[in-house]
Here is the input.
Amino acid sequence: MFDNSIARKKIVLTFIGPFLIVFVIGLPILYQMFVTTQIRYYASENLHGLSTFRDYTKQMSRSSLDSLMQTVKFTTYEQLTITDPQGHIVAGDSMPQFDYDISHYDGILSTRIVNGSLYTVIHVHDEDGYAHWDVVPHFKCFEVIYRGMLFFLLAGLLCIIVSLLIYRFHLLPQLNTLISGDARMKTELNIAHGVQQAMLPHDFEPTINSVLIPAREVGGDLYEYIWVGQRLYFCIGDVSDKGVPSAMAMAIIRSLFHQTAELGIPLDEIIRQVNHTMSENNTNTLFCSLFAGCVRMDTLKMEYINCGHCPPILVDNNGLPHLLEVVPNIVLGVADNFDFQKQVVQLHTDDTLLLYTDGVTEAMNSRREQFGTERLLEITAHHAAHSALIDDILSQLDGHRGEAEQNDDITMVAIQLHAIPPMHYDTISNRTIDIVDDVLKQADRTDDLRLRLAVEEVVNNIVSYAYEEDGVLDVFVHQYAFSNQHVVTMEYVDKGAPFNPLQKEQPDLTSGVGQRPIGGMGIYLARQITNLNYRYENGENHLCMTYFAK
Amino acid sequence: MQISVNDHVIALSGMLDTNSAPEFEQTVQQVLENDPAHWVLDLSDLNYTSSQGLRLFLTLQKGLTAKNASLTLRGIQPTVMEVFKMTGFTTLFTIE
Here is the structure.
């Protein structure tokens, strides 16, 4: 994601940079120019130096002359006398003058300020080659300072103009791209967040409550649940990594699980297929831990497979929680053809199953302490209201985390089930139309003519094909909400001869009256309105119907 | 469901389902045996039909066509029309 600090750095550099360059390089140059100009000026005006008495310094070497000069004191220029530490006057107006011109100038020894005036002590040599010094007053120093200020002012102005030009023609277009890119990215991520949240199944009170809070706009956690007839399939998972790549993987895995579960096939087959599809093209080595389960609503027997995910918490109906015993198996997406071990547990009415991702147990506070599984177990123990469980955990998580940033996606699904027995009918004493009415009543959709049509066709089909004379028909009806849609799922079970109505040839809708066979359209109509799938299991025909209400 | 037969017009009202189909089937048989002429099926008060109803519409149409008579459907309601469209029945009938 675009970082604001990059833009800030660029702006600061654009405006400070030219100043830095001009002043760091310009200042010493200016100083040199300032001094030499003065000396040249002075030397050209005053062809005789102010001072020196050659007798005193004649015998001295250049270095001892310099060290002497460091210790001497200046008085004012107007009556300039320079005395050595012993109090001897070594230079001054009263001293013999020594004429020299700029060709005798050897260099600067030091610059001093005396009584607010600037003096530079320079080396000169005389005709005989003896070294001398002179004190050059910068009587023009204010003018030079003024000029210097003017120089700096102009240089500053130039810097600002250069900076503005760079800003306008180079940086601004770049920033605009960055900022608009950033804004677009943010908008897109917000949309993605909405899409991802909308993808997840909505809570169906009071059976299932769920929450997914990504650490960033989008996350790699997932959960899914879907009823197919009297089976509830569900899963919770955590894709390695966070953010956009894992969010994309999450969407794929969720869809794979949903689509395979929709077929009503056994759980191990679903996991095998999801793992196969994930492993096949997994060039980015993304993997996903997953816990998946399948509960039969009539018996509450749950089959489950754990794919490297943290074990869920099972709170029995006395309020005692424990971690569900799981075989770890392996995460999805790394080992194709892995033989995932399926486990079975008997649930009871009002047991609560809490699925979660490690974003819950490993949520850290500012001291990097984890929330922990123990604490999660404590909260779930004797928790009276199932519907408030997730909210309670979330508020305790918030309390634990304090000011610390959310370090991982947080996902929880709490499932509390009660057994739903199917309705029994026998096909002799119950007229088809009475069964249809009853089923629609169970689904709370007595006035839904589309659903009525599908149910009537299916019941009719079973009644006319399953049994020679009389038989029993079990119908399981369950309704739930999925992504803001009212979903009705049903399972029709009969013990008649194996018969798959979905294998019947579909009617040819384009044929004319003459060729059009009379009949054979019932199941076709039902399939136009609902999703049907069939399996033959334990000597029973199972026909599952899922209907998305309009 | 109610069936009224009047001046070569059969008017159906209510629901044509597994329950009521046999009654309509009798009407269809009578029409085909006794009076194969141009018939109008008035469906303006029919708000539901299952595949059994469709089957009977088709039986009537086929029977009349075979006897050089014809059938026109009138006043099909949206819910019934949806079923007609799903099954391609709109192309098989003369619909007013």
Remarks:
- The radius of gyration of chain B is 12 Å.
